[in-house]
UniProtKB/TrEMBL annotation, chain B:
Species for this entry: Paracoccus homiensis
GO molecular function: acyl binding; acyl carrier activity; phosphopantetheine binding
Upper classification of the organism: Bacteria, Pseudomonadati, Pseudomonadota, Alphaproteobacteria, Rhodobacterales
UniProt name for this protein: Acyl carrier protein
SUPFAM superfamilies tied to this protein: ACP-like
Gene: acpP
Compartments where located: Cytoplasm
PTM note: 4'-phosphopantetheine is transferred from CoA to a specific serine of apo-ACP by acpS.
């Protein structure tokens, strides 16, 4: 339905379940994709699976130099950069009273500051092209909070406020900035949960099940499409109804 | 007008869509030529590219008029 032929998309955290599905969906719609992540092997594997129009650009978003080089490296590999999907994220869960400065700083660094820096890095090209899409993957917990995730929730909520501010600034240049907020998604991370834990989670979700990475990717694909040009500053919640915000 | 001034003028006319005769040395981008703050950022970007120079943020803030731009670029190229 959505055609991204000729568009170039950088997806961070593409070695993860959600990031991989996003890259695959954008690629399937015709986009050239740059797959970014810290581990090269799974990225190469995904690139091989996608075939043409897929490039691997490794980067460690916790490292300032690596982060600063990423927009240019991706644009050079693809011949442009029209779509940025800030999907990479880490967790360092701990109870608030036990959370170290380091756990707080690491999560804020990768999940919030790197989104700011990458977005700033891609804006020049998008401004010149008078077209661009920045899509930030946040989380339902940015809106609802979650015990043990004070750092993660703060970063995700921060991304929402940042996205809205940037959306104001660049709307007149044909650039949209939006967020997709997943709820519980079945990935390698949630596979570790036992059946009882899974049943408990599903019990809190009106849909009665966890979401799939493909269901997040579909939301990203829509926001990346030319058809979504009038949608900006929005957060699309994809959570089976577990939080209707 | 010097070559630099002509090239600056051309960029301003193209970017802001204003009449050429309005782009005089004393014309302020924001007050006289209708630029918003984002336009001024884009103009600086365009100057950097056209002349192959780097305009640091603190210098960019001092470039308010067409003449300011021409003078800065003359000193930088």
């Amino acid at each position: 339905m959505f055609d991204l032929t000729g568009k170039c998309a950088l997806v961070t955290g593409a070695s993860g379940g959600i990031g991989g599905a996003i890259a695959e969906a954008l690629h399937k719609a015709g986009a050239t994709v740059a797959l970014s992540g810290t581990r090269e092997a799974p990225l190469q594997e995904l690139a091989a699976k996608l075939g043409e129009r897929a490039h691997v650009v490794t980067a460690n978003l916790g490292d300032a130099e690596s982060l600063a080089a990423l927009p240019t490296a991706a644009a050079e590999a693809m011949g442009g950069l029209d779509i940025l999907v800030n999907n990479a994220g880490i967790t360092r869960d701990n109870l608030f009273m036990r959370m170290s400065d380091d756990e707080w700083a690491q999560v804020l660094d990768v999940n919030l500051s790197s989104v700011f820096k990458l977005s700033r890095g891609v804006l020049r090209g998008m401004m010149k092209a008078r077209w661009g899409r920045i899509i930030n993957i946040t989380s339902v917990v940015g809106a609802t909070g979650n015990p043990g995730q004070g750092n993660y929730a703060a970063a995700k909520a921060g991304v929402v406020g940042m996205s809205k501010s940037l959306a104001y600034e660049v709307a007149s240049r044909g650039i949209t900035v939006n967020c997709v907020a997943p709820g519980f998604i079945a990935t390698a991370m949630t596979e570790k949960l036992n059946d009882e834990q899974k049943a408990k989670i599903s019990g809190q979700i009106p849909s009665g099940r966890m979401g799939t990475p493909e269901e997040i990717a579909a939301a990203v694909l829509y926001l990346a499409s030319p058809e979504a040009g009038y949608v900006t500053g929005a957060t699309l919640h994809v959570n089976g109804g577990m939080a209707m915000v | 007008m010097s070559d630099i001034a002509d090239r600056v003028k051309k960029i301003v006319v193209e970017h802001l869509g204003v009449d050429e005769d309005k782009v005089v040395e004393a014309a302020s981008f924001i007050d006289d030529l209708g630029a918003d703050s984002l336009d001024t950022v884009e103009l600086v970007m365009a100057f950097e590219e056209e002349f192959g120079i780097e305009i640091p943020d603190d210098a960019a803030e001092t470039i308010q008029t067409v003449g300011d731009a021409v003078n800065f670029i003359k000193g930088a190229v």
